[in-house]
Amino acid sequence: MFRQNKRRIASRRNFDSYESNTDSLNDNKVILTSNNPEEEKRLYDTIYSSKLSFYEQQPQGEITLEQFETWAIARLKILLEIESGISRNKNLSEIETLIKPQFQKFLPLNSDNFIDKKKDYYSHYILRLCFCRTKELREKFIRAETFLFKIRFQMLTSSDQIKFVQSLNLPLLQFISDQEKTKLSKELYQTVSPQLQFQLNLVDEQQKQNYFHGEKFIKLPFENVIEMVGNRSVFLKDGYAYLPQFQQLNLIANEFANQLQEQLIKTFQYLPRLNEDDRLVPILNHLSSGYTISDFNQNSNHYGNNDEGDINAESVWSENISKHYPLSVRNLFKGLKENHHLRYYGRQQLSLFLKGIGLSADESMKFWTKAFTSGGHITLDKFNKEYRYNFRHNYGLEGNRINYKPWDCKTILSKPRPGRGDFHGCPFRDWGADKLTVELAKMGLTKTQITSVLDSCEKGEYIVANTKVFEYTHTFSGNESEKNGLTLMDHPNLYFERSRQLEKK
Amino acid sequence: MSVASPADMEHYYQNCYPFPAIFSWLNRQNESKRNDLKDNCIRTREFAMAFRSGAYKRYNSVSTLPEFKEMVVKFNPDRFEIGAMYNKPPKDREILMKSELVAKSKELVFDIDMDDYDAFRTCCQGAQVCDKCWKFITLAIEVINVALKDDFGFHDMIWVYSGRRGAHCWCNDERAMQLTDMQRRNVLDYLNVIRDRSLSKRLALKRPYHPHLLRSLNMLKPYFMEFILEEQDPWRNDNDALKTLLPNLSDKNLTDALTKYWVSDEPNRSSLDKWNDIDEFASNLKFNSPQRRKDFMYRLKDWKEDIVLLILYPKLDIEVTRQLIHLLKAPFCIHPATGNVCVPIEPSTFTPDKAPKVSTILEEFNNNNSNDRSSKSLQPFIDYFQDHVTNFNNDFNKKRKLDSIEVKTEIKTETKVE
Question: Could you tell me the pTM of the whole model?
Answer without folding.
Answer: 0.74
